[in-house]
Amino acid sequence: MAAPVTPGPSASPAPVAPGDLSGGGSRGPPDPPPEPKQLPELIRLKRDGGRLSEADIRDFVRAVVDGSAQGAQIGAMLMAIRLRGMDLEETAALTRALAKSGQQLEWPEAWRPQLVDKHSTGGVGDKVSLVLAPALAACGCKVPMISGRGLGHTGGTLDKLESIPGFTVIQSPEQMQRLLERVGCCIVGQSKKLVPADGILYEARDVTATVDSLPLITASILSKKVVENLSALVVDVKFGGAAVFSSQAQARELAEVLVGVGASLGLRVAAALTAMDNPLGRSVGHTLEVEEALRCMDGAGPADLRDLVTRLGGVLLWLSGQAEAQDEGAARVAKALEDGSARDRFERMLAAQGVDPGLARALCSGTPAQRRQLLPGAREQEELHAPADGTVELVQALPLARVLHELGAGRSRAGEPLRPGVGAELLVSVGQRLRRGTPWLRVHLDAPALSGPQRRALQEALVLSDRAPFAASSPFADLVLPPPRPTSTHTQQ
């Protein structure tokens, strides 16, 4: 518990009988609230394993936003939280304080059951949001998706969309409402008016080795979703060689905290545990992933991508009360991919967010070859060949992403320019039998050629075995659901 505040030298108030909430009647005004603790005291309290009150957390966040907290103090508090942890109530209080540090998004009350969103903890080749937001809009949802940029080896949704000439990620709350009215979805960046405290803490976490703190991850994710005033949220929690958490057990721990804190804030959160050892789909890199997302919205594309889109969408439609069961919701999302209605919403979103309507139409109605001509491409292509006979057990996503990062597909610090055409196409599938010399990877690069170390790193990412060909399993491993709604007739739907 928080340390008691020592009373000042003034006279002690007269005793009050147990249960007397009158404040002492005529004995004078009630005692003033305790003075806020100074930042060093708050840091010491958490450093020593104490519990921060809601007021303590509000004071810390206020100091972060108004600039009175020094960078060293912010880093010290983050490290204290990383090492000592936070309980569910503290984490919920931090989430609330971050959410209230800026502007709140407000929508028409009639939209309430339709407002849904999805968040991913980050992966390689993860273009699910590009497909899922318009597919959900085609199913009658309102999707005010606030997304992020890539940092390190993972790609960012905003960077992928900005590889489409003209696409604008900065939208005011008023513009977001118009987009939801006209299109049903938008994918935008986090402005300085929305959750500014999270933006400051996120940058500090990145340089203080506190990125993997469960309470800090949870508060960062959910604070951005609380301001959206959602009916339901699904979080795709990645685990594996190219994820923040290497094991499924670690990912489950985060999933359970996300679901529990969401419930305490009145937000229905489900968390999917999905594997991130192989890249998702067959393409990695900004424009290549846009092309693959469009193939998925053609009703085609890789099976693992389609499976994840339909499952996550099914969970959201069920969780928000728009489908009777997850399977029914997944079938509706699949139909939106097959009948072109998701692609139509994507075209409308592009045009509404700054893309020339002619280009948006050409991208969404063209063939894969025509689309490639419309998007920025790399100057060179280089294919790698299988070094031996064997069955593809794994294509390690992390070394592939690291090489592409070196080639310009990623950034090491915020604001660095990207090369949108740089990327890679997998020419084989997990479980497929290869012969030595078969092309397995096509790298798109602006450099004249891969370096020797880059080529070796990529070849080592291909893991072959002697077993018979097999069907690859879905990356979808498990689902953590929120507690059931109360059965009261007054429950808000």
Radius of gyration over C-alpha positions, nearest whole angstrom: 25 Å
Count the strands? 13
Total helix count? 18
**Biggest sheet statistics:** 4 strands, mixed
Low-confidence stretches: 1-26, 488-493
Approximate shape: globular
Instruction: Tell me the fraction of residues in β-strands, as a range.
Output: 5-15%
Report the end-to-end length measured between terminal Cα atoms.
36 Å
Helix content: 40-55%
Derived from helix and strand composition plus strand pairing, the structural class reads alpha/beta
Major sheet strand order: 1-4-5-13
Mean pLDDT across all amino acids: 90
Task: Give an overview in words.
- The chain is about 45% helix and about 15% strand.
- By secondary structure, the protein is α/β, with parallel strands linked by helices.
- The strands form 4 sheets. The protein has a 4-stranded mixed β-sheet, with helices on both faces.
- Residues about 1-25 and about 490-493 have low confidence and may be disordered.
